[in-house]
Write the structure tokens for this entry.
Amino acid sequence: MDHAKGAQYFGCTVMTGELAPAKRLDAQAVCIMVSHRAHVNVHIQANDGPGMSTEPEKLRAPNIRDVARLAGVSYQTVSRVLNNSESIKPSTRQRVLEVIDEVGYRPNQAARALVTSRTRTIGVLSGLTSHYGPTTAVHAIELAAREAGYRLSISNTESDYESIRAGLDQLTGQAVEAIIVIAPQVRVYDAIDDLALTLPFVTLDSTGRGRHHSISVDQYAGARMATRHLIELGHTEIVHVAGPQDWIEADARMQGFLREINDADLYTHPPILGDWTAQFGYHAGRELARERDFTAVFCGNDQMALGLMHAFYDGSVSVPGDVSVVGFDDIPDSAHFLPPLTTVRQDFAEIGRRSVALLVRELDGFGDADQRQIAPEMIIRKSTSAPGRMPGH
């Protein structure tokens, strides 16, 4: 047989590789095309004998029985491997997984749901926002869910009651097994409490109200850490550019700032309420550059710090020579600001892992997982130093 061109065998075409066993079926013949890299593609073609159709073969994806045949096991064993059954010997599991990888088999989730009554889908109810924190949290949750063998179904919603109810209806209509709520405003969580969810759910909620499972970075502690860093450098006149006060994180960071200032018995400059954007940071920076009755600024996030430092540069205010600046989040670009930004890092990957782990443990009947708040980390770079002299001093 000329392997390069393929050959006819019981009505099946076998391409570039060893001849694969095939047998005549009543209406169809199944043949397997095996490449030199052992990647298997399964074809089905009509096999009606001498007068059979000459239409092109129809390509179908490999199924669980193909995997079982190639691995030398029953299809029930393949199913148990896919469902992480502990009754399977490690050597058998490894052989089945290798075949699955080689042939590119992908389980039919809808079919598995019919058999197991489980969709292995986690719903995410997320507020409509493009800000770094929420979007990064969704990405981290998706990675963690995939590693745990789950898929995500995401519903983006406004923060009003009817939109939240519609988003939850959408998710429950897709038979999700559990829900993760990522929403910035307290009123979203109040609405969820009123709706009395019956599914397991967890919120990325730093309010600590204790009415549901929650996973979060300790925003309050992070803000205290940032403010304390400036105080320890010798700053006594510190301004806070805060986020929107209907955001849970913004309020927690502002409260942390105020507590640290109060504990140090320093003068409290009224916080400036912003909107998380670099554009707002720039406008705030232009105003602050004209007043200059401070030597340090703690910004509620890195984007506002970026705009602030741009305004200071335009106003000939040196960072950190004249004013020190601290941000919050440690976005990937913050290490490349000019100067590189001192900031507070949030571990979004850990948020994703813990939120998924908590729900999976509950779904599997193992009880609660770790719900302790995740500690933030102070990242010191080049935007902070000991205070310079204020104008007129």
User: Anything to note?
Assistant: The first helix runs from residue 64 to 71.
